[in-house]
Amino acid sequence: MIVTTTTAIEGRPVRDYLGVVTGEVIVGANLFRDIFASITDLVGGRSGKYEEVLARARKEAIAEMQSEAKALGGNAVVGVDIDYEVLGQNGSMLMVSVSGTAVIV
């Protein structure tokens, strides 16, 4: 399935618009990841563990959106928007939400 942030797919005209599709994933921060991230913050550098969690959440949200598009009979999703939000007490959870328009190309 083609998933793109653009509103059109070059060389693949949209035959039918099927509607808005979404995917949301909420992940909690783990105590050990927090400790290691704090150490990384102190000494500088990137927090690989948080990046892994973020990448996994993004992939899962996109997969959920694709499943919704497929259920509508779509073979592509255009105009995809990816948003990140911190939730919970002290920002202990991260939400990744994606949305787009399911289409047939």
From TrEMBL:
<dbReference type="Pfam" id="PF01906">
    <property type="entry name" value="YbjQ_1"/>
</dbReference>
<protein>
    <recommendedName>
        <fullName>UPF0145 protein GRI39_13235</fullName>
    </recommendedName>
</protein>
<dbReference type="InterPro" id="IPR035439">
    <property type="entry name" value="UPF0145_dom_sf"/>
</dbReference>
<comment type="similarity">
    <text>Belongs to the UPF0145 family.</text>
</comment>
<dbReference type="InterPro" id="IPR002765">
    <property type="entry name" value="UPF0145_YbjQ-like"/>
</dbReference>
